[in-house]
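Encode chain A's predicted structure.
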Amino acid sequence: MAIRIYNSLSRKKEEFVPLHGNRVSMFVCGLTPQDQTHMGHAKTYVAFDVVARFLRHKGYHTFYLQNVTDIEDRIIQKMKSTGRAWNEIVSGYFAEYLEVMEKLHCTSVDVYAFATDYMDEIIEQIQGLIRKGHAYVAEDRSVYFDTTTFAGWGRLSGQKVEELRPGARVEVEERKRHPADFVLWRAQKPGEPAWDSPWGKGRPGWHIEDTAITIRHFGPQYDLHGGATELLFPHHEAEIAQAESYTGTSPFVKYWMHGGMVMVRGEEMHKSLGNFWPVTAALQRYEPEVIRFFLINVQYRGPIDFSPELLDEAKRAYDRLRETVRTVEAERRRAPESGPGDRDLKVASAKVLTDFDAAMSDDFNTREALAVLFDYARVVNKAIEVGAGRTALEETARVFQTIARVLGLFEDRSEGSTLVNGLLDLLVSLREDARKRKDFAASDRIRDALAALGVTLEDTRDGVRWKRK
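Encoded structure for chain A:
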């Protein structure tokens, strides 16, 4: 089934056809490590982790690149307010980001590209833009992009150069020729970190780093650019202008994807409003998989309202789903070869992956994909209640594993899970032998030891089974 993506550039869904066969070049605007990783970050990066996972699931060789803005105004402000070195600030917050992403199972990024590692490419691009008449050097030796020289300005966002008033979502600077012009190279101010350039010491502007990084890795054109909706203007608009002006290739990116914002009780999440939620704070109250489930239980383009009440609701829903997965694991180890529930279960297993693929192929609709999964879980539970055989349950387990790999769920099993499961089966069997011998002291010791490890025993029509809490 062909994937269809809502392209922000065309404002419609388009069939996804990569530029080079089944190879996909994918870039997502990454972190500026100057504060804690928050739930807005988590929503964006979980969403695009799922995108990369699904593309790979469909057989695309996907190279996922993410930048790291390791020099920027907010980093410099924090440097001045804390007395810490800029690179110390960056390394600390980026380490926290990586730890949080690992907990949320965001494992699909191939390369994290730090802006300051691409100074040669940045300077080369700025020089090229000056040569072609798209940029100019100001009196203070900063360099600006002249937006009036790019006919495609506003194509992505709908903004027009002539409609922009000074201060309207762009920084007011007297050195600019036009209100929409943006900085490519910022001349050094006293006490700021700086790098050498043909125009004097300074540092790159925010927008130029992304095109320097992507053109270095992907060339003048690539498949997919992702990011949060609030980056659409001016950041992504500026990327298009400077890249296409520099390379002469259009479109710079074939498909633009923008994720919805995180709201807190109907308001945008901002530190100034006191509704800022670091991911580490959320992780103190909820399991990582619960947070991930909560974030993908909305299609990536939609906003999501974040509150403890909604996370509690997500936890209850995810626990029901996870309980079904664990029940399948428990039942298939001890079920007979076949059972009366097999027919319905096999029919559902044959259908669910098609339905899941249809949902995900429709602009990565994870909400609809989860609805498919819940419908399947209801059939599975009913089949187990009636009596399902081992062969049908093993196919069900494979279905859950396939979907789990795409969505990044049910990954709390360790590599040693097969050994652990075998040992637990043995302990339950030894307890049953002790009960048959009426050695209740030994039986109770095994039961209590398992309970202390978070393993509960349940009596079923086919005997005793164990489940992790």
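Confidence is low (pLDDT under 50) at residues 164-169.
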